[in-house]
Amino acid sequence: MQRQVLCQQQQMRPPTLTYPSGRISVSITKMDYEMLSPGRWLNDNIVEFYGLWLRDRLDKSLRDHVGIWSSFVYAQICQQRWNILHRSARRTDLFNMSALLLHICTRKHCLLAIVRHSGVNQGKSGGIYVVDSKKNVAPGVEIIHSIREFLSRQYQSRFKAELDFSESHLPATVVQTPQRDT
């Protein structure tokens, strides 16, 4: 009887696809895979999987200049887990990248923030570009503020100096995209 229950539980366990192999990877379950059906919304795991897959297909020279970060990073930013973020970002030359793509998921709503800060520490211009397809929703001030605070803390930690990431030095812009109602 116990063996039969165990076999049934193993059959119910969804198959998993893990990509890539190694320290930084994401696992896709059957439920995640079903989110790819028409009329369904993508979830964090699917977007994370695609980000890692896309990063691996970039030319090495471009890969070193574009950071693709998941919504899990933004969740850490919102929780102000600065030590965890510093440890995970220390292997990345964040301030010499041309752009940082940050997937943001908040209460069943997803958007993309692109932080263009190449040369900001040398006085060159940059910006935060928010890509959102939901109608009549402006990106929250708290999202922009959180990204600015993250950049400021990372810069302080790395260079032991301060740099102005305010609106006047790193303006935020909402990018026009096709809009959807829900």
Automatic annotation (TrEMBL):
The Ubiquitin-like protease family profile domain, residue ranges: 26-182
An example Gene Ontology molecular-function term: cysteine-type peptidase activity
GO BP term, pick one: proteolysis
Keywords: Hydrolase, Protease
InterPro entries according to UniProt: Papain-like_cys_pep_sf (IPR038765), Peptidase_C48_C (IPR003653)
Membrane spanning stretches: none
UniProt keyword annotation of Ribonucleoprotein present: no
Domain of life: Eukaryota
Family note: Belongs to the peptidase C48 family.
Protein's UniProt name: Ubiquitin-like protease family profile domain-containing protein
Species for this entry: Glossina pallidipes
